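User: Fold this; tokens only.

Assistant: Input:
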Amino acid sequence: AQARLADEERRRAMAEQDLTTTRKTVTDQEKKIQTLKHYCSMNQKERNALRTIMEVKIKGLVDVISGAAHEASPGATMLHDRLHALQKIVNASVYAMRTDDQSPDPAAET
């Protein structure tokens, strides 16, 4: 009977040790999750700022430069072609960032 009692005590001690280890692991994982959520939030804020800069400042500046170039030298086709290509790149980048920001967040569903 005493051997059985000692065996049960040893199993209980092992179970408590396993529980303590599991709790520590869960706590560590929760800290990592919070850190990742913070990084994701900061990343999203930076993306929004970059998208706004591209939409408002860069796109507007490229449009103004393109218009001025057309007025100043209508025959400079190479310049106009390159400015048009730059406008397309900026517009595509803004569109891609806007589309990506509007897509549902798969992490929010969990």
